[in-house]
Amino acid sequence: MKKNLLFEIGTEELPPSCIREGVSGLKKILEDKLTENRLEFKDIQ
């Protein structure tokens, strides 16, 4: 059974220059951890 998962991350207090790098880093970590734990996923946006 496939389900959606939504993370909401408050970035109001971060400088804009940090947000893009942080999001791409978080995406990579999440992909690695899901794969490591054999959890199938279609896409991370």
Structure commentary:
- One of its GO terms (molecular function) is glycine-tRNA ligase activity.
- The protein is 47% helix and 0% strand.
- By secondary structure, it is an all-alpha fold.
- It is elongated, with a radius of gyration of 13 Å.
- It has one domain.
Task: Please tell me the total number of domains.
Answer: 1
Secondary-structure element order, as H and E?
H
Percent helix, as a range, is: 40-55%
- Low-confidence parts lasting 5 or more residues at pLDDT below 50? none
The fraction of residues assigned to DSSP E strands is: under 5%
What would you call the shape? elongated
Tell me the number of strands.
0
Main β-sheet: number of strands, strand sense, barrel status?
A: none
Give the terminus-to-terminus CA distance.
Answer: 20 Å
Task: Please identify the structural class as seen in this structure.
Answer: mainly alpha
What number is the mean pLDDT?
88
Gyration radius (Cα, Å) is 13 Å
Task: Please report the number of helical segments.
Answer: 1
